[in-house]
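Notes from hallway chat w/ T.B., transcribed later so I don't forget. T.B. wanted the structure written out for a chain they're using in a teaching module, and asked if we could keep both sequence and structure tokens in one place. Agreed to drop them here.
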Amino acid sequence: MAGKPFNLVIVGVGGQGIITMANVLASAAVAKGHNAIVAETHGLSQRGGTVIVHVRLGEAEAPLIMEGKADLLIALEATEALRYASYLARGAPAIVDSRLIRPPLPNVEMPSLEEVYRALEEAGIRVFKTNAVEKAEEFGNPQGANMYLLGYGLAVNGYGGYVDASSIEEAIRQKVRNPEANVKVFRAGYEDGLRAKQ
């Protein structure tokens, strides 16, 4: 049974479906009788701009998660994981997609994917490395990377017990275009997450 509030930080860039991802998770929790708060704090939803969304499940008093208090970080773009890693609690994992998106500003030096992973691991973070876009494309659904990562996150730590696979799948059917295609991608992410967690 769910206990203390569960704190999730989702990061990436505009246009990746991060807010949709957060809303699906929150809807799934509400359907199971729990409180859920979604708060977007940066980037609005412009394409290419940084986006960070806080999702709090359970009896949380404030909408924003303090640095050092997140139970999980999901990054749909690798360098954003590095930018917001300070939100993670000690010992909390990060799920990091392998996608690197160059910012719209010219002459910005980007770290390599290996440098991102190494910096996170040196900070003591357990990093789950994914290739969500490629996985979603295998299902003919390249826009479904967010749903793949949602499933992966469920496998990694269960979102504090506030949701389960069936409640998330029902929320996908209610909130997302092409629901059945996205449910398939969600299930693939869940299965891959279970294998990675072993």
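Follow-up for T.B.: The radius of gyration is 15 Å. Might be a good example for the class.
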